[in-house]
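Quick illustration, no need to memorize.
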Amino acid sequence: MNEITAVIDDRLSAYQSDLFELLAQPSISATGEGMERCAELLLSVLDGYQFDRVQRIETSRYPLVYAERGGDESLPTVTFYGHYDVQPPGAQDDWESPAFEPTIRNDSIYARGAGDNKGQFLTHVFAIDALNRAGSDLEVNVKLVIEGGEESGSRGLIEYLSDAPTELGGTDLVYVADGPMHASRRPTLIYGNRGILSYQLDLETANADLHSGNFGGPIPNAANELIAVVSSMFDGDEVTIEGFHEDVAISAADRELVAGIPVDEEALKGDLGISEFATDDPYYERLLLKPTLTINGLSSGYEGEGKKTIIPHRATAKLDSRLVPNQDPERVFKRITDHVKRENPNVEVTKMGSFPPMKTPLDTPAATPLTTALTEVWGVEPVEMPLLGGSLPAAYFRTELNVPVLVVPYANPDQGNHSPNEHLDLDCFRNGIETTAQFLQRAPNTEEL
């Protein structure tokens, strides 16, 4: 490994240069800004490395970028997943340096997409390059699938995976470097992710807002009625919707792993500016092992300054539910809809989007060489988690390809993805490259990847 380490250190400035070129190109899938140019730029960057095949794959949304190296069917195949689209930068005044002008300060790379996800998926490309330059023969086939719609629903990727893509035939493992590592800054290995179901409730009770003096009392109030429906969906921290918790499958091994995840609850409260948590359950047990129902936003009536004595005739609530294995978003949505209609049949329920939860068995063989690589590169044993609190489209790789999916975030815990001043620490970027390289060297030694 010393020779590979030397190559990475020698090539690091060149790797940063390629990353900066990609970071400087806006690629906002929510608006379409720069998406076409970024896809073509990524193809150009990959063409500069030693892949046997680099191609663009069209979808109904934004194109996928695909690359592969090796085609020996007797060898295991690792598919790396990432995304080249980013979140909108928001107000430029909130950034210390422009969002699409990558800058190094305080030993970090600042730019939109630095951690989410351009800086992370490129580590795999650079790892393969380092192995090649070190003269290390890869005894594993490598594929990359980089999508352009992760930040806006992954519609193109989902369609692609559901059509039995020949490019991904023979995949033995899907490897995802996305999200932040554990708050302790220890390397992190995650075996799955929570799913998400987003939905909206709308109620209209009259044809206009009405004077509360002239009509208050006998005329129904949309805000009052919708709040009553929403409040019927939970009691304290517990979701009360009939059948909501059915199908949940959490193993004893999952619970044991969660019990060992380090957390300083008092420090966390201080960081978040809260005095108490919303539950008596241990922090990670509640975060990872139980489904949730969250009110994201409520809107109704007059929201300007001062007062306006009206009866709102329209009200809207936006909600999401984070789901755990083996909950199906469609079945959960039906149970939510049935509950709402029993409470008030006039409320319209609209599904806004969903990703299913995903879980890879804790005893998957690929975890062994991966934990070894993480320990050697970072100098400390990784934190292992059964689930990521957030949601990823990687779940579709598991359901459509029926292969293990492992999530290995390389970004620093405070990366600020989706926020101003997003950044990727230089040591995380460098260590991510070496982690992938070491894993690829060890993977073929596993009895069954």
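The first strand starts at residue 53 and ends at 57.
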